[in-house]
Amino acid sequence: MPFESILRIRFCLLALLLFVPSPATTQPVKASANQEIETLKSEVRKLRETVDSLQATLGRQVPPVESEDVKADSAEARLEAELAAELAVTSEVRAENDGAQLRGTVSRAGASLNPKISVIGSFLGAGTTADAVEKSYDAGLTEAEFSFQSYIDPYAKADFFIAFGHEVEDPFIGPDEEAAFSGEFETELEEAYLTTLSLPFSLQLKAGKFRSAFGKINQPHPHAWDFVDVPRMYMNYLGGEGLVDRGASLNWLVPNPFGFYQQLTLEVTSGATEGSSSFEATKEPLYLLHLKNFFDLHESTTLEVGFSGLRGTNDAARNITNIAAVDMTLRWKPLRLNRYKSFEWITEALVSNRETPAGEVNSTALYSFLRYQIGKRWFLGGRYDYSEFPDNGDAHESAWSGILSFFATEFQKLELQYQHGSPADAASFDRVLLRAVFVIGAHGAHQY
Amino acid sequence: MSFASGCKIRFMVAFCVAANIAVLPLRAEKKISVVTTLPDLASIAQEIGGEHVTTFAIAKGYQDPHFVDPKPSYMVRLQKADLFVQIGLDLETGWVPPLLDGARNPDILPGGRGFVDASENVPLLEVPAGDPSKLRSQGDIHAYGNPHYWLDPLRGKIVAKNLLDALVRMQPENQGYFEKNLQAFNLKIDTLTQRLAARFAPFNGSRVIAFHNSWPYFDERFGFDLVGFMEPKPGIPPTPRHLVAVIKKMKQAEVRVIIIAPYYSKKSSKLVASKTDAVVVELAGSVGAEDGIKTYFDLFEYNINKLIVALQTSGSPAQQ
Predict the structure, then answer these.
(1) Measured between alpha carbons, how far is B257 from B269 in angstroms, rounded to an integer?
(2) Is B119 on the interface with A (CB under 8 A)?
């Protein structure tokens, strides 16, 4: 290669330069040496020009992004690095010359060795006119959630969520023996599961402890909800934290000729659902079936319709509870100014059939939530709750809520919720909830 | 004889079947399905892949690429994709991970043979130095550098090279075809860049204000002077106090043009423009931002034209 031979010549010239007598020697020698240096310099210049023109013809080796005036400088820098390599100078010099791209790759490789880590804080303040509670107002950190998420290998990924926080009393019921408002401080493994990535036939398997695929809002964590409190339907039938259980979940992306998104999920879990009044003290596994359908009605409008079925035992005598639920979400968000305006309507309803030694109990519950984006960072929402009880289909409670949310950035939100509640067996009350949710660490992706 | 003719028929049938089988692979040659995050990537992929690819871009050109909703319907697209191409540098970190996880297509997961990060080998600007834990206090800073590199046509050539490598990986038999397309693409980009740079030369060094910091690469290539931003920090909406400072700066530096991408509200920019005799000009952030911008080449043609018109009509002083 002519290029290599030129390099070699330059290297020799450099070596010659190094052997030129030092300035400490006598004057005549210095003068001749200076002359020599000058001629060498001009030769080096000529060579440099040749190298540059050669590189230009080689085309590809010249990074295409350099403008004309930068080219000369960077060509020099490249040569310097090549010489440095020849002289076995540290690799740092070369890294510098290779520019941002190399720095980028290095830092990305370093960062990827750790799982994605984030901490989400959820701070709640509340005041209520209800009589049954121990304190009529209080505030506290309800949750500090640590999450660790990463690919394990090409076949699976793992998600861990560990939460620390105070139990919060449910003002609809009043204080129970376990938890007052800012009561016991708890540590909990909220979720820990493995998800496969490469099963055939569009299947995905999840195993561990996880939030069930029931309805619309059970799977996302409560701090991601667009309201502060748990809808009464979830509270009464699935427990204050929603349905969280240990077991396995298999889901299938159903191929269909219309090309819309359809996912079928089957879950078999241990039935160790804490706080779920539908499936307490269960001896048998809990079975869940969920079908999620998603339609793009328009570029900016989507409709999701889901059906859920739950079956499990509700007492030691293996009496069965069956729950069937439907969820519907309509979303509108113009793509052009997608951060300024949006509209969302979520409605969920369930019917429950519960066998008891005294006979069957049929009951229903629903909630409906509407939210409109009034500004780039402001949302106004409202929710209506109606719920009967798993063991009593004749009594019911209801609530109206108004919610104002402020998203400072995608890492921080403030929500103010006013609620008028009408419990089944107590006087109606008003309460105000103020919640701040903030995240540090890995950029959390949002579910749609 | 009937036996002989039977033999002949059988032979013919066998021959036809064999011929069919031999032809089948040619006829059934599948096009490479390329799904990209942004339309710019789809346009470049189409240039390089030509008749051997189909392309689909998830985000629309007039949509804010930082905030795209990960609709499940995109998972269905990704499930069938051979190649997935992203801008990278965390631009799409809010919406790509759930889509890839839900797509059940191991080939397009990071590290898979169908996964392409277009930013590979692209020299970046604004790579932040210092303590990463302090970055977010600076607003929505991208830890790996400013991700809007596709707005420099010459960096687009590196993206094209990355796509070439991926396409060759998928269909090595068409390497020659793809390489020819890459050459044609590079030539087209070079001519276009030269032509546009020459047209913009009289406006070199013109001062402009931008709404969001999306333009450093575009600026670097065509040489105007970005003196400030409407946003106090990236991703943080303009505050009055900041706007006052912006107005002051614009008056001092005689800035008459405010550039903004179509997905941002123009309210604050118009307000500032009214106080400073400036014009607000909507530049395309991506292919498809306006009806006329159908290809990656159109993008630069459109933006340079629009910018020149704005600089002329606003009477911006030419600066060198």
Answers:
(1) 10
(2) yes
